[in-house]
Amino acid sequence: MRKLLSNWVQQIVFLGPAILFYSVIIVMPFAFGVFYSFTNWNGVSGNIDWIGFDNFRAILTNDKGFFQSFWFTTRFMLISVVLTNLLGFSIAFILSKSIKSRNLLRTIFFMPNVLGGLLLGFIWKFVFIQGFSSIGKLTNIDFFSLPWLGTENTAFWGLVIVFTWHQAGYLMVIYIAGLANIPTEMLEAANIDGANAWQKLHRIVIPLIMPVVTVCMFLAIAWAFKMFDLNFSLTKGGPYNSSESLAMNIYTEAFINNRYGMGTAKAIIFFIVVATVTSIQVSLTKKREVDI
Amino acid sequence: MKSKFQLYRMLIIEIAMIMLALVFLSPFYFVFVNSVKSMGDILLNAASLPKNLIWDNYSHAWEELQFATSFKNNILIAVFANIGLVAISSMAAYRLVRKRSRTNRVLSYIFLAAMVIPFQSIMIPLVKVASWFHLVKSIHGIVVSYFGFGVALSIFLFQGFIKSIPLEIEESAAIDGSSVYGIFWRIVFPLLRPMTVTVILLNTLWVWNDFLLPLIMLPTKNLRTIQLSINSLFGEYFNQWDIALAALVMGIVPLLIFFLALQRQIIEGISAGAVKG
User: Which ipTM was obtained for this model?
Assistant: First the structure.
């Protein structure tokens, strides 16, 4: 009997604080979010009317902006996830060979990740608008003289470039660790059997780092879907909302249009989409994981 | 013994990597170099080195950002969020690993689920809930919020590490009459040091750079963090790059120094967390 009580006390002492803060900050707001999405709450007033699925119906049938943001975010995610993983993996792969300046290079490639929030976007805003145009004038290369961030296309690719620059280093670090875990005997045996570089990469390296690929793709997809700070500071959704991510759309709906009920409805849809996509991705890549 | 061909190839690859690294560093170059130029010089040629060094940009930016206050707020939030997260998460992770009841296994997954929930899905109701618990408009309030947001990742990282601590150490301490709490704080926690360092580094990076949560929870001027101050400066001084860049430099330098001083541990921490988990 005493053991049972002391067990309970231990559970509360060790897990209590974590459960408490988690419930107050994450679980409760999430639950309330679900509730508010069925109302017409505007964030301030006392009258909140239950309107059932009206918000959801409006979003799915009437909201062009939402679908534009959805499509934008999807395109952004697909391209960015591929680019960041390719770049991160390639740099990791090259740095896994014995190059003299390896540690210095590793630090430099990770450094972009230290910037965050609005600073990242504002710095690159300057680079795109002033820096690129100066380079364009000096070198006469057309690429730099484009009206960066001023057109739908340049805004999209501007975001992709900054996102890739920012996140590739983080993924590179994870890939380096994964590559280090590949037993060298296997690669040596493949050499003796006469395998060329492509075969080694394709048949040995990639299958063996699949667990790391799972993690990196999961992270990249989650980051790309949730991107807000960069969007807000680099393009603010412009020009004319053409580069508005889902996260920005929700923020605008709630805090600028003051339609909190609608905003939380969008946020719930957002959550379902992110959870679904990441679950599918993790189960797909986990199937391809190979145990040594 | 490597052939000459292979040595040349390595050299070319190394040079290519160094050039890529320089390209990676170029945004930093642009920001630092132009932050001491006059507005006219910036517009003229953003790629050139400065002719005269205009330090006024910095004193102007310091005032506009109320840098002393913003920096102090950032430090307070980062320090207390870390202390809390380390204590709360290490205890929770310990219990979850050592007592594998069905409840605890379910709890592990529930904590993990938080990593998928986008901030936007919680931020709107969060303000309401937070105001019920008197958490808005205060430093302690936002620190508590970071506890809630941070436990998921921190518990995950600690769990992985605790699994590798042999039970015999704890068992012999128990035989010697130590209580569970004594075992944890005097024996297990000190052993967690490498992971504690990792958790602190990773949490500091995201808490310091956070924008949205302070935006909705710290509306008053004297509670602003650096991110919020920069946001308001950019709203006002929209195209005045001379002062804006000086402000940006001041915003990134603290974390850059932090990173460069601890870069080995930060990088090792990320790989340990991702590969072990």
Answer: 0.86
